[in-house]
Amino acid sequence: MRSLVPLAGMMIAAHVVVRFAIVIAIGGCVGGGDLVQTPPCSARIYACDAAVVLDETEHGCLAVPRGAWVDADPQTPGTQYDCSVSDVQRYGEADQAEQILPACDVMESNAPCWRVVPDATCPEEPAALEVVRAGIPPPVDNQVSAYCLYGCACSIFGGS
User: At 26, which helix (H) or strand (E)?
Assistant: First the structure.
């Protein structure tokens, strides 16, 4: 379940997950993201998701809480970030609507879309996620929700 939380005077989307039953069942992560168990199961390695905080220009530095970003295609040079980005209108209202944004193609012809770009001003990782609209205005009453997967090692005693 996602909810809005205040951060530095802005409202951002934050991921809230009740995980008690999951922790008991598989010894998963306590805190920080959804669990997606990845083989081998005995290694207790999971993919957790981290919220990406975007500014008013729909640009935000990637900051992995712990571990390393999941590479969606290890055969391709560089990190291929595994992210989920959506436009959410009327967030939290009965008539809330969500449009999932695709990753941008090479020519950005599928805007609105998202991409990860180099950004030397980012303190933890020199990369940022940004939404590309190509002149298409965002929907009215819109909140962008962005999450990227990172690897986290977990134990039955909680946390990584």
Answer: helix 20-26
On the question of pLDDT at 74 being above 60, the answer is: yes
My answer on whether omega of the bond before 138 falls inside 30° of 0, hence cis, is no
Task: Quote the CA–CA distance of 70 and 86 in Å, as a whole number.
Answer: 19
The 10s digit of each residue's pLDDT in 2-48 is 333 332 333 333 332 222 222 222 333 333 444 444 444 344 557 78
For residue 9, CA distances in Å to 30, 136, 143, 145 come to 27, 26, 15, 17
pLDDT-above-70 percentage for the chain: 66
Cα-Cα-Cα-Cα dihedral of 128, 131, 132, 135, to 10°? -130
Do residues 62 and 81 lie in contact, with contact meaning Cβ atoms separated by under 8 Å?
A: yes
Is residue 129 within 8 Å of 115, Cβ to Cβ?
Answer: yes
Residues 6+ apart with CB under 8 A from 82: 47, 69, 70, 71, 72, 148, 149
